[in-house]
Amino acid sequence: MRNTVRTETSIAHKDQAPSAWAGPFLTIWGGQAFSLVGSQLVQFVLVWYLTATTGSATVLAFATLVALLPQIFLSPVAGALVDRWNRRMVMMVADAGIALATVALAALFLIQAVQVWHIYLLMFIRAAGAAFHWPAMQASTSLLVPERQLSRVAGLNQTLWGLAGIVAPPLGALLLGLLPMQGILAIDVGTAMLAIGPLVFIAIPNPERKHGSQALDEKASVWADLRQGLRLVRRWPGLLMIIIIATLINLLLVPAISLMPILVTEHFGGGALQLAWMEAAWGIGMVLGGVLIGVWGGFKRRMVTALVGLIVMGAALTAVGLLPSTAFMLALAAFFLGGAMNPIVNGSVFAALQASVPADMQGRIFTLLLSGSAAMAPLSLAAAGPLADAFGVQIWFAVGGLLTVAMGVSSAFVPALLHFEEQGQKIAEQNGAQAPSGGESSALLPA
Fold first, then answer.
1. Of 398, 245, 404, nearest to 311 (Cα)?
2. What is the C-alpha separation between 162 and 287, in angstroms, rounded?
3. Contact at 8 Å (CB) between 428 and 434?
4. How many other β-carbons are positioned within 10 Å of the β-carbon of residue 241?
5. Which phi and psi (to 5°) does residue 2 adopt?
6. Phi, psi values for residue 112, rounded to 5°
7. Within a domain: residue 440?
8. What is the mean pLDDT of residues 243-261?
């Protein structure tokens, strides 16, 4: 017997013309797209400000660590709350809170009183807001979009991340020469308002509780809801494997990506423009990879698609770490290839999760994945800065990329991962409900 909430949503989608669901979803999505570009723009200029004013790999590594802490400690609780609260309000409050914090930092730049710890604080607040906003949006997507379109929407989301990666870095490099920092921060505030606007007028359905403790007791604790999510992970070996792989991948690659400005300035001898090119190459790759997964849909088994993308991405990052300082153009090509693989991995995994995890538990599961994937990164970041200052940042790309390849190859021989969606179906049937299942073949790495 199919899950009640999911069945009702699916039937409604099947009966609707494409514009009936596409109009509201794409309106919300469009506002979020502007907000993402603004956020990426601010992220670029803040990272470059730290690079230009300190030149320290340790400072950049600590900035990444600050942004990870809310993902590790806040995300699990945030997911349980997202499954209880009105998801539209969660997104609105998160966007508004981030915008207010950005206004405060802009004021500090205006009066020339900004310090490095102020930037750390803003990064922490932005990450805390994202810990609520991201699972709310991901969980809402499976209720707004027909199941058969989830893979393509995942590709569309990855394409958006790629476009933001293309537009934001060069625009940020340009604006650094045209506007003061407070002016650039004001752009992010404006785009946040564009994201909030559609949410004021468009309703987002909230699923009836079927799998959490609140289904039986409205006063049940958030911790009980969190334990319910953990029990699902424990009973679902493939889901546990996804969390473990995401944790290990972030352990290996987060330090490398966070230290990319140092790679550009110290190894390749570039500046803000070269850093923008590097990030834009990744973004262009993401756009094309997102279009590919959106049109193609991937192999019959989504996890096979994800693992192939993971292997190729690891090989590309290994190449970046091994290239000499005179091979900047080859590094751009390798980053382009790695970027193209990112949506292949992420789009496949997120579509599988949205199609397989019960709708009323998706907030908890998405945040457990986010928290688990970020949990080990602080250990590597603690060592990344000092080691990069002493031995060069290339080692993180070479070693991290090579181990990523090894992980992708070895995971291809793990049945629990390859049969992820079939496991979810069996577990749902054991509970007397059928998990949502997408009708097409269609994620793992942070974009």
1. 404
2. 5
3. yes
4. 19
5. -70, 145
6. 55, 45
7. no
8. 80
| Domain membership flag for residue 12 | no
Judge whether 216 lies within some domain: no
Q: Is the pLDDT of residue 217 over 50?
A: no
Tokens of 399: 């070693």
Place of tokens 């069945």: 7
Report the DSSP beta bridge partners of residue 434. Answer: 2
Which residue type sits at 445?
L
Short-list 172, 194, 186, 32, CA closest to 103 = 186
Q: Is residue 91 part of a domain?
A: yes
What is the DSSP code string of 50-77?
A: HHHHH--HHHHHHHHHHHHHHHHHTHHH
Q: What is the pLDDT of residues 183-214, one digit of tens each?
A: 989 988 998 898 898 888 887 776 665 544 44
- Give the number of residues written for the chain: 447
- Using the CB atoms, write b or e for 143-179: b if 16+ within 10 Å: bbbbbebbbbbbbbbbbbbbbbbbbbbbbbbebbeee
**CATH code, domain carrying 139:** 1.20.1250.20
Structural domain harbouring 137 = 17-206+221-430
Q: Which residues contact 193 (CB under 8 A, 6 or more apart)?
A: 99
DSSP 431: T
Displacement of CA 67 from its chain's centroid (Å)? 13
Q: Do 337 and 316 contact (CB within 8 A), yes or no?
A: yes
pLDDT confidence bin for 314, thresholds 50/70/90: very high
Give the start-end residues of each E strand in 121-256: none
What type of residue sits at position 268? F
Torsion, Cα of 342, 346, 348, 349 (10° steps): 150
Per-residue pLDDT tens over the stretch 20-57 = 777 778 888 888 888 888 888 888 888 888 888 887 77
Three-state SS across 172-192?
HHHHHCCCCHHHHHHHHHHHH
Convert the pLDDT of each residue in 130-178 to its tens digit. Answer: 888 877 887 777 777 776 666 677 777 777 776 776 778 778 888 888 8
Mean pLDDT is highest, among 133-137, 286-290, 335-339, for 335-339
Max Cα distance, the chain (Å): 64
Q: Are 339 and 282 in contact (CB under 8 A)?
A: yes
pLDDT at 444 over 70: no
Cα–Cα nearest to 63, from 76, 44, 78: 44
Q: Distances in Å between the alpha carbon of 396 and those of 48, 56, 108, 319?
A: 20, 16, 35, 11
Backbone dihedral angles phi then psi of residue 441, each to the nearest 5 degrees: -75, 130
Q: How many domains does the chain have?
A: 1
Tokens standing for residue 274: 């070269």
